[in-house]
Amino acid sequence: MKKLFLSIVIFSVSINAFSQGCIAVRSMATANGNPSGSAFMHKGDFQFSANFRKLHSYKHFVGTVEQKQRVEQHTEVINDSYNFDFGLTYAITDRLNVTLNVPISHNDRSSLYEHYGNGTPAGSNPRFHTQSKGVGDMRLSASYWVFNPMTHPKGNLAIGVGIKAPTGNANVQDEFHKLDKDKKEYIQVKAVDQSIQLGDSGWGESIEMQGYLSLFKKANLYFNGFYLFSPKELNKATNLSVPDQFGARLGMTYSILPKKNIAVSLGGRLEGLPAVDAIGGSDGSRRPGYIVSIEPGILYSSHRSSFLLSIPYAVVRDRIPTWTPSGFREGDAAFADYFVTATYAYRF
User: Fold this and answer.
1) Backbone angles phi, psi at 196, to 5 degrees
2) Which of 131, 142, 82, 137 is nearest to 109 (CA)?
3) pLDDT at 327
4) How far apart are CA 228 and CA 255, in angstroms?
């Protein structure tokens, strides 16, 4: 039994999607939000997971073309995000479990254009900050192993569905520094940028899958993905869109120290939000786009716990055109070069 549990822990990897700089991908996790995804659990078992993710975004893109002049002119927008996602899973049966995920984040955004503007003389324009911190949109999900894990230790597939609740503040406000016609400063309190809003004000429904497959001795394939449907069109308090979002991962793990339960992983990672939603309208302001990353990682597992550290590095950043009633139009968005994510899970 211990061997089977460790095998599934190593074979399967979870998804955690967060804001990618100016691309406002909300906190989202698969059924367990931990390194083992829906790792095998006996009926009545619980599992606690905690994921941490940090990123620093500052490079602007229009499509896949980097706008290098933004950094050279010091007009880039900088987002620093520190995100936690806590999950609690309960096994209803040996194959069916439910999970509650609670995201908490602290975001800091600094820019010129949102305050005095980018047009003031170089070096004379201070960089002001806006922030958000607190609980984001919670999610309740269920996941089911298609095959009995006890009889299929070399490969399996889990499918899941979930509901996202609008528990995060979707109208976080902060102070913006403005200049009047006489160049005197005044303070304007208004909603912060969509990339650091804690929620989007809408209910959502998700579908997801994850699985693993033994390739050869010590090496295994992992794959997972999700799509979040957001039927609500518009957050009327901020005039921001309530967008769909998606994520997927595919890669391989290799056990380098089997006796010590240590494995390494390497794979690809995709996450972002579309310009047009699958259900409902797509009105309102949004920055659609996606990021493709190469993701190396290292995983340690024991009988009841597991720990994963990975550093996805961006290879493609694409700020796709925004849909408007008059047609698609280009826009820019800032992305991170890489981010750091660490996940711990404990089964009891």
Assistant:
1) -120, 10
2) 131
3) 86
4) 33
CATH level 3 topology of 2-347:
Lipocalin (2.40.128)
Residue 101, C-beta contacts closer than 8 angstroms, at least 6 positions apart: 27, 29, 33, 85, 86, 87, 138, 139, 140, 141
Give residue 302's pLDDT: 86
Mean pLDDT by 10 residues, the chain (348 residues): 43 51 60 43 92 95 95 92 95 94 96 84 75 96 92 90 96 95 93 95 95 90 94 93 95 92 94 94 92 96 90 96 90 94 93
The domain spans of the chain are 2-347
Distance from C-alpha of 211 to C-alpha of 157, rounded to nearest angstrom: 4
Predicted TM-score (pTM) of the model is 0.88
Torsion-angle region of residue 218: left (phi > 0), alpha (psi -120 to 50) or beta?
Answer: left
Q: Rounded to whole angstroms, how far apart are CA atoms 98 and 151?
A: 22
Q: Specify whether the CB–CB gap between 200 and 166 falls below 8 A.
A: yes
Closest CA relative to residue 140, chosen from 87, 184, 209, 69: 87
Look-up of token digits 């493709």: 292
CB-CB contact of 25 with 245 (8 Å): yes
- Distance set, CA 75 to CA 36, 59, 197, 228, 320 (Å): 41, 10, 22, 33, 21
Any idea how long the chain is? 348
